[in-house]
Design brief:
Family: Belongs to the iron/ascorbate-dependent oxidoreductase family.
Largest sheet: 8 strands, mixed
Strand content: 15-25%
Number of domains: 1
GO biological process, one term: small molecule biosynthetic process
Order of helices and strands: EHHEHHEEHHEEEEEEHEEEEHHH
CATH topology: Jelly Rolls
CATH class: Mainly Beta
Number of strands: 14
Keywords: Iron, Metal-binding, Oxidoreductase
Shape: globular
Helix content: 25-40%
CATH superfamily: B-lactam Antibiotic, Isopenicillin N Synthase, Chain
Protein name: Gibberellin 20-oxidase
Radius of gyration: 19 Å
GO molecular function: metal ion binding; oxidoreductase activity
Structural class: alpha+beta
Strand order of the largest sheet: 1-2-10-7-12-5-4-3
Bound molecules: 2-oxoglutaric acid, fe (ii) ion
């Protein structure tokens, strides 16, 4: 890890061990639901999974190779889609006034994974497809285990279990997103970082070796850095899981900022976005019913529009919005999940 001294505080996040979740360890599941209840952000210790850790290194090498190509080559993979293909930097709103985002992405959809071939045809993607698919399989498995344990802890059964909304028989917008935040001399004028937001879907499995990720602390007052840890993913709860858990599981507001005055090296991150089946409905904190796809499209439009109300970007998770979404309107009664000890109450 290229660790650097930070002026901003570090967030203290709980660590959940993937192998303990896999084996159904009861204490680990309790810790998991506590983490999702308290802040919706936690480390997932992957050190028991050599294959996944090795794939992370291979993915990074492939990303350096892919993003290092000339823009016109990468643009051959552009599909004007939020779900697959290449997208250059600067298409979304940035973290500060009058800025745009400072990252480019390559996305591989679950749809392509299930079909067994990518819709992108450049040689550079075709050469990496097997690795992208193998990695997607592992990230999908890890996120589905988390959903299973959360369903168990919340006493959900049958069609009400979270996994039921992520059944591959229903098309979804789940995808693997590879991000590069290019260093400053390759950045366009006003491009910088990643604006604050909550994630759209159910769970995000994020791998990043470099600093830059910040999350808003559960008191909604302070930004803290999420320390990059080798062999650890950072998992966060997205809007649709928060909504489907009726606010029990929190989706934290996060962003990516520069750690120096300028981005002094390329920053790479790998995000697997687990999302519900497109047509599956849920009710947001104000009682409005959305399908997963409607919510996805609504939020992506907001990410692109400079005038979007901040509440949309942050899934109504900023201070005051919390009060409105949870208590004043009264759709959700927040009771800690069964078995959660007092000290973890929000
Ligand atoms: O690049 C990162 O570390 C975070 C990216 C992120 O939050 C996102 O793509 O939703
Ligand atoms: Fe995010």
């Amino acid at each position: 890890m290229a660790a650097k001294a930070k002026a901003s505080p570090l967030l203290t996040l709980p660590t959940i061990r993937l192998n303990h979740l896999r084996s159904g360890d009861a204490a680990e599941s309790k810790k998991l639901i506590g983490a999702c209840w308290n802040c919706g952000f936690f480390y997932l210790d992957l050190s028991s999974d050599d294959i996944l850790c090795r794939q992370w290194e291979e993915m990074l090498a492939s990303m350096k190779d892919y993003f290092g190509q000339p823009l016109d080559v990468k643009m051959q993979d552009a599909r004007q889609s939020d779900n697959y293909g290449y997208e250059p930097q600067g298409t979304q709103v940035g973290p500060w006034p009058e800025t745009v985002d400072g990252y480019e992405t390559l996305k591989i959809s679950r749809r392509e994974f299930l079909k067994g071939s990518t819709d992108l045809t450049t040689a550079s993607v075709l050469a990496k497809t097997e690795l992208f698919f193998n990695f997607s399989r592992k990230a999908h498995e890890a996120t589905m285990i988390i959903l299973q344990r959360l369903s168990d802890e919340m006493g959900l059964a049958g069609d009400d279990r979270f996994e039921a909304f992520h059944n591959d028989t229903i098309p979804s917008l789940t995808n693997l997103t590879l991000l590069r935040y290019p260093k400053h001399n390759e950045l366009k004028g006003s491009s910088v970082g990643h604006n604050k937001h909550t994630d759209i879907g159910s769970l995000t499995f994020l791998l990043a070796e470099q600093w830059g990720l910040q999350a808003l602390s559960p008191d909604q007052e302070t930004w803290g850095f999420v320390e990059p840890r080798s062999k650890h993913a950072v998992i966060n709860v997205g809007d649709s899981l928060r909504f489907s858990s009726m606010g029990q599981l929190l989706s934290a507001v996060h962003r990516v900022i520069l750690i120096h005055e300028k981005q002094d090296e390329d920053r790479y991150s790998i995000a697997y976005f687990l999302r519900r089946g497109n047509d599956t409905p849920f009710r947001d904190g104000t009682g409005t019913i959305w399908t997963a796809k409607e919510w996805h499209d609504f939020k992506f439009n907001a990410f692109r529009a400079p005038t979007s109300p901040m509440q949309v970007l942050t899934g109504m998770m900023e201070k005051n919005d919390l009060t409105t979404a949870r208590h004043a309107i009264g759709h959700w009664t927040l009771v800690p999940p069964p078995g959660l000890c007092q000290t973890t109450a929000r």
